[in-house]
Write a structure and sequence with these properties.
The protein has 339 residues and is an alpha/beta fold. It is built from 15 helices and twelve strands.
Length: 339
């Protein structure tokens, strides 16, 4: 082996584990600094919310039209999120790109609308056509800006002034603190409007029908089996016929109904407990009286909780007065995403 092949240690590399720990500590310090700067700005705004906040909420509540939210660059991204939050919480809203507005989309803004315009400096060139359009047609503007003496603030009916806090980036220029404050202020507007309108969980579900969030608001009536799908027998039905009904409907239970009211339920457990002489009995003698039930308006998640607590696979659904109207099975809950 020649001299050039002689193995040697790589002294140019620092000890790996300590270097990783030091790098991690430096990065966590950056995170702490950024979060601290932004948190301080939010705290300042929480201690002293923008002066025109109540007037802005009043304008939005009284508007017969929609809320048009616009901004350029990072402010545009925040504006898009504010519009989405408003729309999903009961305030019709849309995002309008200011450059597209100057090329025909100004027609999306109509009498009765209110505009929320975001610009950190209040001098964003791309917003000028939109501002002029609102002035021409008497459309109210709510400005969200850090510059109280800016063109946008002066032209607006209400100016919501963000705190004069430093940006969190190392050079103090990238939109960080300012966009965080604008986003939080948009959330505050949306929540204030929700509370003023008495926006309910049921209404929230209307705008969020999909996914886990939508499943949280599903009612038993949304998934329950009804009509001919229900396994129903009378108290006098022979157990042989009852077993056929249970097998045909496939839920592992049979509802015992008399006089239009639920009188009991027969489950697989009832069958096992009554094996001796089972076929000589009638359904009413085998059924468990006063079973656990659900109502059509019960949250599906609540019905699932009842099934889990009592280790049962299905609940019969009854209306006020005890009339059987449906059946909900644990598999229905799982298919709906409630788990």
């Amino acid at each position: 082996m020649g001299a050039s092949d002689t193995p040697r240690s790589d002294t140019s590399r620092p000890d790996t584990a300590p270097a990783r720990d030091a790098a991690s500590a430096r990065l966590r310090a950056v995170a702490a600094r950024v979060l601290g700067i932004e948190a301080a700005a939010l705290a300042a705004m929480a201690d002293d919310p923008p002066e025109g906040f109540a007037r802005a909420v009043g304008l939005l509540l009284q508007a017969p039209g929609r809320v048009v939210v616009s901004g350029m660059g990072k402010s545009g991204h925040v504006a898009r999120k504010i519009a989405a939050t408003l729309a999903s919480t009961g305030t019709p809203a849309l995002f309008l790109h200011p450059a597209e507005a100057s090329h025909g989309d100004l027609g999306m803004v109509a009498a009765g609308d209110v505009c929320i315009l975001l610009s950190n400096s209040g001098e964003t060139r791309e917003l000028s056509d939109l501002v002029q359009y609102t002035r021409r047609f008497g459309i109210p503007v709510i400005a969200v800006t850090r510059a109280a003496d800016s063109t946008l603030a002066r032209q607006a009916e209400v100016a919501l002034i963000l705190p004069d806090a430093p940006e969190a980036c190392a050079i103090g220029m990238a939109p960080t603190t300012s966009t965080t404050c604008a986003l939080a202020l948009g959330d505050a507007l949306a929540v204030a409007l929700m509370e003023a309108r008495g926006f309910s969980a049921e209404a929230f579900h209307v705008f969020h029908p999909g996914g886990k969030l939508g499943a949280q608001f599903l009612r038993v009536r949304d998934v329950m089996h009804v009509g001919a799908a229900l396994p129903v027998v009378s108290p006098e039905t022979a157990m042989g016929e009852t077993l056929v009904e249970m097998s045909a409907k496939g839920f592992g239970v049979a509802a015992v109904v008399a006089g239009g009211r639920l009188r009991g339920v027969i489950t697989d457990g009832d069958l096992r407990r009554n094996l001796d002489g089972l076929m000589a009995r009638r359904a009413g003698a085998v059924a468990t009286p006063d079973p656990r039930t659900a109502t059509p308006d019960m949250l599906l998640s609540e019905a699932l909780g009842v099934m889990n607590r009592h280790k049962i696979g299905a609940l019969l659904v009854v209306e006020e007065g005890g009339a059987l109207c449906g059946l909900v099975h644990i598999h229905d809950c799982l298919r709906a995403g409630v788990a």
